[in-house]
Amino acid sequence: MNDDLYFEKRIEELERFIEELRKFAESNDLDLSGSIRRLERDLLRIKKETFSNLTRWQKVYLSRKVDRPQSTDYIERLIADRVELQNDRFFGDDKALVGGLGWFLGKYPVVYLGQVRGKSTEEGMLRNFGYMHPDGYRKARRLMKLAEKFGRPVISFIDTPGAHPGAKAEERGQAMAIAENLYEMARLRTPFIAVIIGQGGSGGALGVAMGDRVLMLEYAIYCVCPPEACSGIIWKDQGEHAPEAAEGLKLTADDLYRFGIVDEVIPEPLGGAHKNPELTIKRVGQAIRRHLEELLKYDVDELVEMRYRKYRSIGVFIEKPPAP
Questions:
Q1: Contact of 220 with 244, CB cutoff 8 Å
Q2: What is the Cα Rg of the chain in Å?
Q3: 5 contacts 54 by C-beta, under 8 angstroms
Q4: For range 225-244, the mean pLDDT
Q5: Integer Cα distance of 239 and 233 in angstroms
């Protein structure tokens, strides 16, 4: 692991020391409250300094932490009366994507999608570690069209390193499956909100993320390819230049908000989403509700036109006059 990824170590050591000191004081009937308070103030200061100066590579590291809340956590807490739907009606059921119908906050009928990386090695293998096959994109498209048919908004939770790169996925039409999803999302006649909660890797993420509103957690990432892959392409190495690649890719939530690619950055608790999953999920739910209520005010034709303008306006280019 790169040395700059040990930024949490000092914080964790101080947290352990404070906890041990508290237990020592309790077991020996000592009053060390003053010392503990001073240490807690120092800990808070160090946390604020550390997390206000993270590099892009350090944010990549945070986005990949396995104990961050995953799509299934958000779905379980934010969507009631769920009915999960499976299979793409063509080949099979891709476990890297869950989806179905439910009631967002118990009030709004929605169709939900969620990419799942898994929280353990066993679950990761079941879920393909979040790498979706063509079957997953076709399942997502089936659910999107179902949402359109019944006038239900779509809420999509994005968390994938990328689309599955294997030969079987290519044989079954990986590129076409993603392209067809982009086509359908561009003209989908119902509100669509995408939330990037961890990794947003390349077309693997974009294939279920072309929303009217794209929200992004503070330490999530969204990029054309992982920094390690970029390092291999540019520097022809095994990922040694990944930190440099991360800087060049401009893949953080702040970068993408500045470029107009995401519509809102959702703040994470101090230390990251994994330090307080409940608060993180609450904040995500509040943000989704705000944007959903706004989108529901628009006529569906307006909605499609606004989505078209949104994506046409992304990117800046300059046309130079021809040389004399």
A1: no
A2: 22
A3: no
A4: 92
A5: 9
Give the pLDDT of residue 1.
44
3-state DSSP assignment of residue 156: strand
DSSP structural state of residue 242: H
Characterize the bridge pairing of strands 79-84 and 97-104.
Answer: antiparallel
Helix/strand/coil (H, E, C) string of 65-132? CCCCCCHHHHHHHHEEEEEECCCCCCCCCCCCEEEEEEEECCCEEEEEEEECCCCCHHHHHHCHHHCC
- Give the pairing of strands 97-104 and 192-201: unpaired
Give the global pTM: 0.91
pLDDT in tens, 9-23: 889 999 999 999 999
Q: What mean pLDDT is reported for the chain?
A: 93
218: helix, coil or strand?
A: coil
Provide the 3-class DSSP secondary structure of residue 13.
helix
pLDDT tens digits for range 185-211: 999 999 999 999 999 998 999 999 999
User: Which of 2, 4, 3, 16 is CA-nearest to residue 50?
Assistant: 4
Structure tokens at 238: 């095994």
The residues that bridge with 99 in the sheet, in sequence order, are: 113
Which band of pLDDT confidence, cut at 50, 70 and 90, is reported for residue 3? low
Q: What would be the CATH architecture of the domain defined by 61-312? A: Alpha-Beta Complex (3.90)
